[in-house]
User: What shape does this take?
Amino acid sequence: MTICPVQKVTLFGLSSEKRQVLENLQELGIVHVSDINNPNRVPERPGLGDLDSYKAFKYLMSAPSRRRQITSQAGFDAQGVVEDTLQVQDRIAELTQSRDHLIEKIRQLEPWGDFSFPTLEDMGGNHLWFYTVPRSRLQALSSLSSPWEIVRVEGDAHYVVVVAPEEPSGIPVPRTHTGAVPLSVLRQQLDHCEMEVDELEAQRIVLTHWCSLLARHLATAEDMANIGQAISCSFDDQVLMGVQGWVRKDHAEKVEAFARRHGLVCVLADPDLSDHPPTLLSNPDRFGGGEEVVKFYSMPGYRTVDPSLAIFFLFSLFFAIITSDAGYAVVLGFLLMGFWGKLSQSHSGRRLARLGLMIVGMCFMWGVLAGSYFGFKPPAGSFPARFAVIDVSDTGFMMKLSILIGVLHLLLANAMAAWSHRGSLAAVVPVSWMALIAGGAMAGFGTMGDIPSIVTPGYVLAGVGGLGVFLFSAPEMLPPRRPMDVLRIILAGLLGLTKITSAFGDALSYLRLFALGLAGSSLAMTFNQLAMNAADSLPGIGLIIAFVTLVAGHGLNIVLSIMGGVVHGLRLNVLEFFNWCITEEGYPFRAFAKKEIATWTP
Assistant: This one.
């Protein structure tokens, strides 16, 4: 829930020991290495190196079954394993394409039967022409002068063969191309193709013996690439060498102990205003799903705030409002249970699984408050009906609620921005925006809700906020020292006030919560009504139609709800919210550490 404080660390030692120092530092695994020659340049991550090896490793890891791992390096030829694996992969891809082509060709040829074309001499110079003619067009064949015959009938399709030296005219359908290879030969080719695929899949499974060693090989190669990049970021004058980076403040003692052990000079310093430190987010795993969302979109700057906790709860809330159905929440819960094992295989996956659990819980609670269970309302006086206090179809109420949620969301964003600038005049602007947005909301809600007592205070509060934005949009020029500074303050203030339209638009954009929730609820009720109409009007078969309508309709609505919840829930958090909350974009803290590539435990 915080951005970890870091310190700048600089290590000096003998140039002749540079590589050994970097290898030991990589073993320590707690320092983010920066470019000592250009401290504010963000070093690019080194490439994956041998892409073929990664491709082969990924292919073996996705094998349907796996063999016991070989741990001894004796007899391990990494290049040979990679080449064999890629050859197997390419050949399987080629054979799979051929198999699909053969299956389609056999499907097209089966209605005509298994036959071989006679020679042209045996046919007296005639050819066989094949057509698939619907019943409604058979009459057109009566005008043909050439002999023809119907060899098969399947439903409305009539399979017709015409004997003629040239392609006959007057047939109302295009010719069917059967090819010259008999059906029996195509089936033999398909059998051989599938047998070879099976043999190659078996070879692939045998190659999985080497996955652990191949992973170790890849990790070593990536470690070497990282050391090479660290060398390029270091200082070296042929006598002394220096390497610089960032370390968590609570890990500084470990770096000092490392320097003492290896005879290095260690200099630690807090970042100053000219520094651009990396951002290291720190959140407990139970709320870490919000951090994963933040890192996926944009890393906040070091001197800003961590919005992960807010994202964790508010994304779940927005998703719930868009879904607005307790029954759908139960379905989402079962889907989450189905993917829980796969998500639990990685640290990020476990965090996202907990976020999913929060979403399911929030969806269920909101659905109960909305009184919607697969689009059905609980009977009046029933136990579930006691909790149904929100009417999603009440347009006026839901619009006001959505805008109120948006206003509170923007107020929270500006409060977090003010906190990140605490102790400086720059904090006045987000506080002023809070006053302006809150005042505007008071005036608006007072007018719409016939509460005149809050309209005037709302205008006053908005005016004070606007004045604060105008006066403090250029805090670095306060107090003004020259007449030109006054002009710049005025221009910056006018420019800052142009964000009023953005604030108004951002608050109104939360109406999408109401619109999507109402659309989903209306669709659910519509599918229920269609199903009941089918069951009532068509006895017997109507029950089947009703069941299909319910399953297909609610299935589609759940998919649309998930898409809407993800897309618009993220949009409101990472666009509207981040626009006001995150005042500086940063880059992630990446520890210079040994690479580990996970395989599996046989």
